[in-house]
Amino acid sequence: MRLPTRIPTIVGILLTIIIVGVVAFVGNQMLTPSKASGAQEPVNVHTANVTDVTFTLSWLTGSPATGTLLVSATNKNDEIYYDERDITGKLGTYITHSVTIRDALPNTQYSIKILSNSIQYINDGKPYTIQTAPALTLNSNGLSPAYGTIMEPDGKTPIEGSLVYLTINGGQELSALTKSSGLWLIPLNQVRSNDLNQYLPITNRITETIIARYNDLTTTATTDTLNDSPVPEMTLGKTYDFRHQQANVGIANQQLAQNTAPTALGAVLGQSITKTFSITLTQPAQGAALTSPIPLIAGTGIPNKYVGISLGIINPQSGSAKVDEDGLWSFTPQKPLNPGNQSVTILSTDINGKPIAITHSFEIFKGGTQVLGDATPSATIEPTDTPTPQPTEESTSTLSGQAPPNTGYELPTILLLIMGLGLFVGGTIAVARVDIHS
């Protein structure tokens, strides 16, 4: 008995469509992040450090992954921004991620997609959104920086790359990453209210909440503005309350840095003379108005120790300078600063290893000539031979405007199209041959 060999044309076409659909569905599943890739999915996404021109988005992943942002706004196409540790454009893999945008516009809403291992992630079906703050005049009466150290659960090993979030009561959330020493530093001189419309009113003592995260460990602390320079050492997994410690009431930044190191200079007229050293920032002075866009940054410190410098509000420059034998140090930025409000923060350690941070705000006039130093030379710092400033890991130049990376794989898609087309053509030919032979 001979079986029928003729397949109706419509049936052949339907079979071809079904096969193509199945293949396409399987390919789509291959290209879609599965639950197995959940370790790269962003969690604990935070927005912090929002000003009129900057904001920071940070998150964690369950396993090390690359992390970048695609940022867009009205009349602004997608631009890619890198993690603060990927300043060269070479992507590293981390479990904590922090990306800062420094060329934003005031009162502008930005749409953001997170790229984790080149896979796009959004928030409940929609991109993350951030609204920048209105522009404000420079705040010259701000708080001194808050800083401290985060340690591993063993209490002995510092953690590099821990995310630290600080919120002042009534104020905005601020964030930072810890360095290899476990040290974190958050400037507070321009902190805003939680609605971002004004600078936070300063009172004698304001409560602060600090949260540090790394991997699946968290530590929290409650302190205040009289006990945050420095915040006592914190160990991941523990909870602290530092408000009841003795506070340095009424001591300004410069006085906080008066941890002196005596050095014998010999006998003069039969008397022993001792020279003391302290950590100070003498140039530029707080509130100074400068004509040079390449100002001299200078001060004093503990001989042979290094001073870390972060200079500028938009596209900040970072570096370091070694304190010479006379207790003097100086630093000159490689690139000119933009006219307008600027700030500089220095960080060093006293003779006991205690970190000391000082921040000064100043202004650069438009049309200033590019000379080294202030418009008027200062008599407090004499020119000294200092080593070339060493680049540090705190450099925060922003890379933007580069083409975004591919978020999928082209080869499987091409193969699917070829397979689908082949099946369709093959099915049509087979049906035609059956019709002919019948």
Structurally, how many domains make up the residues? 4
- Overall spatial form: globular
Global structural class? mainly beta
The level of helicity is 10-25%
Low-pLDDT residue spans: 30-36, 247-261, 263-274, 368-411
Description:
Strands 3, 4, 6, 7 and 8 form a 5-stranded antiparallel sheet that branches. Residues 30-36, 247-261, 263-274 and 368-411 have low confidence and may be disordered. The chain has 438 residues and is mainly β. The chain has 4 domains: 9-32 and 411-437, no CATH class; 38-45 and 62-132, no CATH class; 136-250, Immunoglobulins (Immunoglobulin-like); 252-403, Immunoglobulins (Immunoglobulin-like, Sandwich). The relative contact order is 0.14. The protein has helices spanning 9-31, 253-256, 410-437; strands spanning 43-48, 55-65, 67-73, 76-82, 94-101, 109-116, 119-121, 128-131, 146-151, 163-168, 173-177, 183-186, 207-214, 217-224, 234-235, 239-241, 261-268, 271-277, 280-283, 289-290, 297-300, 306-311, 317-322, 328-331, 340-349, 355-364. It is globular, with a radius of gyration of 29 Å. It has 3 helices and 26 strands. α1 runs antiparallel to α3. A hairpin with a 2-residue loop joins β3 and β4 (76-82).
Characteristic key phrases:
single chain; 438 residues; mainly beta; Immunoglobulin-like; 4 domains; five-stranded mixed sheet; 13% helix
